Amino acid sequence: MNQYSRYILVVIASLVSYAAAAQTEQSTDLMRSNGKIFVVMAVVVLILVGLFIYLFSIDKKITRLEKQDQQ
Question: What pTM was estimated for this model as a whole?
Fold first, then answer.
């Protein structure tokens, strides 16, 4: 079973390196020239902010439940 996991890891690493090599400077320049890079960054920031808000709300709920359990 360990041998199969190594094969899977090699395939995943190969795919990631292939995808990274496919990101050419020409495609990033095209995104910058059209102004789409700012849209992409705004979406990424919104997703991260949403995840952090969710994380903090879950933390508050867990803290409140722990306090109730101690009483």
Answer: 0.52
